[in-house]
Design goal:
The chain contains no helices and 11 strands. The protein has about 150 residues and is an all-beta fold.
């Protein structure tokens, strides 16, 4: 059977629709309002034939520049309203996805009714008032799925 076919969709908390993008501009950070992004991670969206389920995985997050990794401690992730555990090691955050989470690889028409084929993860960036960040300092984050089998 084919490996999982993963596609990422993302939107700001204020956007109405998700977009499938390789690169997504999240906007400018404002300390008065936490920045929130919502991800949909699909397996085999619009697939006509079943592929392998995605299970036993975590999500890793890193910044383009190592010195920006100090901001990882202010990133929080949740699924279904519950905060997910995470670790930070050598500039990379690992978001722990519970082992009970499985993203099905069954065939589907890509509609939201196929809830087994995707999960939603919300990321919140909440930098405390006592932490200074440079204005207009563009940050590039990378997200990846890592198999833990």
């Amino acid at each position: 059977m084919q490996d999982p076919k993963i596609t990422w969709y993302v939107k700001n908390a204020t956007d109405k629709a998700f977009t499938q993008e390789e690169t997504f501009y999240a906007g400018s950070y404002n300390k008065q309002v936490d920045m929130e992004l919502i991800f949909e991670i699909w397996n085999n969206r619009y697939g006509l034939q079943k592929v392998s389920d995605l299970k036993n995985f975590n999500i890793t997050i890193g910044f383009d520049h190592y010195e920006d990794s100090a901001l990882l401690q202010y990133c929080f992730f949740e699924k279904d309203g519950r905060e997910l555990d995470s670790t930070i090691d050598d500039g990379i955050m690992t978001v722990i996805i519970p082992s009970s989470v499985v993203i099905s690889g069954k065939e589907n028409d890509g509609s939201k009714q196929h809830t087994d084929n995707y999960i939603q993860i919300k990321m919140r960036l909440a930098i405390p008032d006592n932490v200074t960040i440079k204005p207009n300092d563009l940050k590039t984050m990378f997200f990846d799925i890592v198999n833990i089998q």
